[in-house]
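Encode chain A's predicted structure.
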Amino acid sequence: MKTDLPAFRLRRLGRRSNFAFTITEVMVSMAIMLLVMAGILSCHLFGMRMFELTKTKLGASDDARTTISYMISEVRGAKNIRVGQGDQSSFTGIALNTPQIGSALQVYPSTNTNVWVRYFWDGADNKLKRSGTSSEPTVVASSVSNAMVFTAEDHLGNILTNNENNRVIGLTLQFYQLQYPTVRIGPGNHYEYYALRTKITRRTLE
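Encoded structure for chain A:
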């Protein structure tokens, strides 16, 4: 009895056998797919890290502008400014012939020395605060590690030893933590060092 398959069925089986993958081809395809997935995952993780860094920088910059903009306005419009040491209840200006660098800044908006605005670094909670003649302290900046926040400088950035009329007020804030978003500063974190530095001078010089 003849069991030969017709020619057309033999051709169909031959075409089907050509469509199959060998074990080597399957392994190579899987290896390529794994490499592609690993590359995509690495790019995704890198993008997330860059997003966190960018968000931190933008948040810190925005917070810095918000917190010091009012102080800049007050210093620019002041009649007199003194750099010294102080807290909520007292202020002592730096003596003449002594480097004008301190933890507090007293701003007199007019010639009346009984009306003042004081910015001071509070060592109890490491915060820069603002208080007025008859107002309670408010927080300007948090997590500030340096006590010597204010300086009086000349136009070249040299610290003065007198109350020169056209002096420039320097502000330096060194942070160990950023607030929005909350990010620690130091070895092993996003940033090992973060500081805010600006200079302000009065608009009207006498």
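The chain has one domain: 42-200.
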